[in-house]
Amino acid sequence: MWSHRTALLILALLAAGIAGTGVWYEHQRRNAERYLVFTVPPGSVARLASGEPLDILPQTIELSLRGKDTLVIRNEDVQPIQVGPFKIDPGQQFEQRYYNPGVYELICTLHQSQRLRIVVSRE
Question: Do 119 and 113 contact (CB within 8 A), yes or no?
């Protein structure tokens, strides 16, 4: 009889542990950060200057506060680029996380229009 109770206790503890792991995993998933990474390949600035269209960054980037999104732009070109007030030198990377919803209009030297729109939503 005692071993039957012990087995039931062990099964109950295992079930609680598995349920707890599921709750922990869901908590970690909800608190996870998402990185949107864009890489500027070598020769991009020269190609843009010659009039060639580039498809490195979309004209509009959508970020989510809920997803804790972070925008990352890596400059692997030999020329500096500018995104908003930030100059990104060759070999450098720019990271920006937004904490308020809204639409942000930035100067961006990777677009012919020199404009980049960041849309930050709560979801």
Answer: no
